Amino acid sequence: MPALISFFAFTLLVGIISYWATRKTDESSSDGYFLGGRSLSAGVIAGSLLLTNLSTEQIVGLNAQAYREGILVMAWDVVAAVAMVFTAIFLLPRYLRGGLTTIPQFLEKRYDKGTKTIASTLFLLGYATIFLPIVLYSGSLAISTMFNVPENFGLTHTQSIWMLVWSIGSIGSIYAILGGLKAVAVSDTVNAIGLLVGGLLIPAFGLMFIGDGSLTDGLAKLVQDAPEKFNALGASDTSVPFSTLFTGMILVNVFYWGTNQAIIQRALSAKSLKEGQKGVLLAAFIKILVPTLVVLPGIIAFQIFGGGLETPDQAYPMLVNKVLPNVWLGFFAAVMFGAILSSFNSALNSSVTLFGIDIYKEYHNKNATERQVIRSGKRFGILLTVISMTIAPFIEKFPEGLYSILQEANGFYSIPILTIIIVGYLTKRVPAIAAKIGILSGSILYLISQFVIKRVYVADEDYPHYLHVMAILFVLNVTIMLVIGKMYPNKEPFKITYTKQVDITPFKYVKQIGGLICAIVVFVYWYFS
Predict the structure, then answer these.
(1) Which of 55-69, 76-90, 249-263, 264-278 is the most confident on average?
(2) Does the residue 474 lie in any domain?
(3) What is the pLDDT of residues 343-355, one digit of tens each?
(4) How far is CA 47 from CA 12, 195, 461, 473, in A?
(5) CA–CA distance from 147 to each of 140, 143, 438, 445 (Å)?
(6) How is residue 428 annotated by DSSP?
(7) Residue percentage of the chain with pLDDT more than 90
(8) C-alpha to C-alpha distance for 364 and 515, rounded to whole angstroms
(9) Residue by residue, what is the 3-state secondary structure of 206-256?
């Protein structure tokens, strides 16, 4: 009963704070609903960025990989900090000067409407069939395992997953569809505080369990018994070979933190460029510390359970069930529930934004009022929620780990979109046909490479790592676009149209702090090498 009370108390607190903070936001306008009235401060941006990223697909998935391979999987978080610095210094100033609401809007200005539509469609396909279902499934798996839902409710494991998927999806859609971006961002910030506190409890209690009540003794025993788990330089046969940090790993992170609508929409909502840059840099610094939450518990789980778990994806939920005192269960359940909702409703809100602005208004009703655009987006959000909740339970059929599935599948749209955005900003005369060929060839070639050739004709051990494949296709697509641009250049060079939506005075110390963050990343790898 105390656990149940604390769960509902924290969940209710998040809802009340979100309502209070957004009650004066005009959500009848596009900027109000989709960008929170361009009013977000650095702290809210940082909190929302982190919790949008840090959900159960990462907490469960990365800890599963750490359970198998050790600290080398921290690359997904630590290298992300470098990509976030690039976003703060190079991309964000250009986005805010252009007054963008969605990333595809830039593609329309730089290339044409068709390019924007292709990019928006790829984003929506990725969210509907990959990201949203995986968030729902991983969250349901975590809660079902941690709190013995099948046993407590008299359900089978499969029934438990279906029940939780539809419960989480329904509640998350209420935040995202009815509340708009600011409600999502504020709830993210409150939940981020709870997640940092609750998340740190798991490795702390886990180390004390290993060390017979002593946290330091537990850490010493962990390092002594499994030193191979603390080598950050992955070999060629691991999920993250060290060489991939300089190829696909950095590209994937630049896409995710710099061009992925679900993430960058938080920074686009900044009240000024200064606040946006401060928020992204603050999130980058904290991101370096995130492996404490998403990697260390997996290594602790290996120390406690050995290789005896049915699947690695059970490592984190089983650890929580083993070491967390009952008095903390309700609070931690609420924190995990908030983390699940955060990633789900953030991606769903971005999908609503993309559909309403880039597809409905463009193709269905060019004269639509802002209220009509918002209403159409909300209806699409409901449809997307139902599709995602239907797909999610079937992810259980895949033998690979959750995080590996997510990252490899994302490649079909992440690298092609990143390619045309980077070329778009760095060149002036590359034409729209080059962007269309680049984005379509990138998507098709990646799908053929990873899901036809690799799985049908070539053994995994003889095939390049998918992160290397991403880098190869990135270089190939850039080359194709530049060659087309040389042969058929635009007659007039592209010029960014600057707006005055927000103050675009940059943060005074953005380069110095960015350089410091990159230096810390290098130090971390040196220390764990």
Answers:
(1) 76-90
(2) no
(3) 777 677 777 777 8
(4) 19, 11, 40, 33
(5) 11, 6, 47, 43
(6) S
(7) 34
(8) 46
(9) HHHHHCCCCHHHHHHHHHHHCHHHHCCCCCCCCCCCHHHHHCHHHHHHHHH
Nearest CA among 389, 408, 405 for reference residue 397: 405
For residue 168 the two structure tokens come to 């989480």
Alpha-carbon distance of 3 to 22, in angstroms, equals 29
Contact 36, 180 (CB under 8 A): yes
Place of tokens 């900027």: 31
User: Is the per-residue pLDDT at 31 higher than 50?
Assistant: no
Token pair of 108 as six digits: 């329309």
Would residue 243 count as lying in a domain? yes
Identity at 419, one-letter amino acid code: T
Structure tokens at 265: 């929409």
270 DSSP 8-state letter: B
Pair of tokens at residue 276: 């946006």
Q: Is residue 152 part of a domain?
A: yes
pLDDT band at 13 (very low <50, low <70, confident <90, very high): low
Q: Are 290 and 273 in contact (CB under 8 A)?
A: no
- Would you say residue 499 lies in a domain? no
Neighbour-count burial for 187-203, b at 16+ CB within 10 Å, e otherwise: bbbbbbebbbebbebbb
For residues 74 and 56, give the distance between their C-alpha atoms in angstroms, rounded to a whole number: 16
Query: Which residue reads 């079909």 in tokens?
Result: 412
Per-residue pLDDT of 354-403, as tens digits, reads 788 778 877 777 777 777 877 787 788 888 889 989 988 888 776 555 56
Going by pLDDT thresholds of 50, 70 and 90, the confidence category of residue 184 is low
The CATH code of the domain that includes 32 is 1.20.1730.10
CA angle 53, 54, 57 (to 5 degrees): 95
Residue 518's contacts (CB-CB under 8 Å, 6 or more residues apart) are 81, 82, 85
What pLDDT was estimated at residue 351? Answer: 78
Residue 510: burial class (beta carbons within 10 Å; 0-12, 13-18, 19+)? buried
Per the structure, the count of domains in the chain is 1
> Within 13 Å of residue 474, how many CA atoms lie on the same side as its CB?
25
Distance CA 199, CA 197 (A): 6
With a CB cutoff of 8 Å and minimum separation 6, the contacts of 332 are 146, 198, 201, 202, 320, 324
User: Residue 374 sits in which domain range?
Assistant: 2-403
Q: Compute CA 364 distance to the chain's CA centroid, rounded to the nearest angstrom.
A: 30
**Sequence letter at residue 192:** A
Tell me the one-letter amino acid at 69.
E
Each residue of 469-508: pLDDT tens digit?
A: 999 999 999 999 999 999 999 988 888 777 777 788 899 9
3-state secondary structure of 76: helix
* Cα dihedral 181, 182, 186, 187 in deg (nearest 10): -40
**d(C-alpha 81, C-alpha 290), whole Å:** 11
Which CA distances in Å does 353 have to 93, 180, 376, 410, 502? 21, 10, 10, 20, 20
- Chain-wide mean pLDDT for the chain? 83
